[in-house]
From TrEMBL:
Residues 21-60 form the F-box domain. Residues 83-420 form the At1g61320/AtMIF1 LRR domain. This is F-box domain-containing protein. It comes from the Eukaryota. InterPro entries: F-box-like_dom_sf, F-box_dom, FBL60-like, LRR_At1g61320_AtMIF1, LRR_dom_sf. Pfam families: F-box, LRR_At1g61320_AtMIF1.
Amino acid sequence: MTMLQSQFDDQNVSVGVDRFIRLPLPLIYHIVSFLPVEEMVRTCVLSKGWRNVWSTVPSFHFNHDLYLSKEERDFFKFVESVLLRRDGLDIQKFSLSLGYKPRSGDSRVNSWIIYALRHNVQVLHISNDNTSIAWTPQIFTCESLREFKLHNEDLKLPTLISLPVLTTLHLSSVAILNGHLHVAFFSACPCLETLILEECEFVNCYTLTISASQLKNLRISGVVPDSVVISTPKLVSIEMIRIRNTSIRFTCELKFISDVNFDIELDQSSESTALLISTVRNAQSLTLSTLFLQPIYVELENDPSLFSCIQTPFSNLKWLKIGTLFSDNDIMLIKNLLRHSPQIEYVILGKYEDYEYTNQVELFEEEDMMSNCKLSHLKLVEIQGFRGYENEVKLVKFFLENATVLEQMFIMVSNSDKRRS
């Protein structure tokens, strides 16, 4: 590279930096906040205008794994140096990711959290990939905290909890050691709108009770206690994923429900599968797994009165995804749901390869399902795991004959050569 080319490139970089610094300050903060703190601090060498920008950015992400030196003392000194030199304004977001338990004890790390709390932090994310830390109880009485995310911790809840403006709570791989206090925990968050519980353990707790009058979004995945009771009248979205052998009960009507995803294997003491389907009848988007649906046939055989539950009108339903075995009963159940979903526009049917057939009593009369079943809004059908079996061909024919405005049909052929007898 010639000296002239080098000067030209330097001028281009300088012009780009100068243009960037002339952007509105909130926009600069937003862009720079995506950088790890180490990179954020390095922006001070770009030009004179950048010298103090990093110290006024209201968001910080300290991640030991991204820090150049893996020595604990170097990382600790860096964090404390940044906090000492910043301008002292309020903190919008404070994110801390540790890969070890501090040898210097929990108090030093807690001092960083307390610093953020005293500067009215709104978003607090903590992740620890090693031994748990006894976090300061001041987290649970922070009046400014709006979002709290905790990953991979053994958490002992304090007896005093008050989070008056918290709207989002995300616990991932967290073991609540005094699990019975979870009810008080949720109740102490009167503005809670989003609750995410992923692979969480509630020690010495046999019923998970979620009672939140303002909750709109609920996601639960993995291990849960034996029983789950939900009272969330304003719920808009619910996902219950990879949940096995659990009793689930709703104690309120879900008038505002829009998006539903059930991948649940219920135990015998739970509300029936048919009743749960009826509970979410106001949904616009509905996903039901194979494991969730298969018990319904035994329920209907034992209690024919439950047929009324699966014949409940889904007046708002536009998007339906079902995990299916393409058995006779599955086909009839799918047709039944479609028959009672006058606004349905999109249907996705996925083959569950590893679920074995069970002996099923024929519960539906095909003639009844076929009558009065014009799908006048259905635009797209996707069938996954197609093998060309008789039931699958019948289903394709059903859609072609009844979907009067169908625009697209995708048929994905199964990669498996395994045939069931």
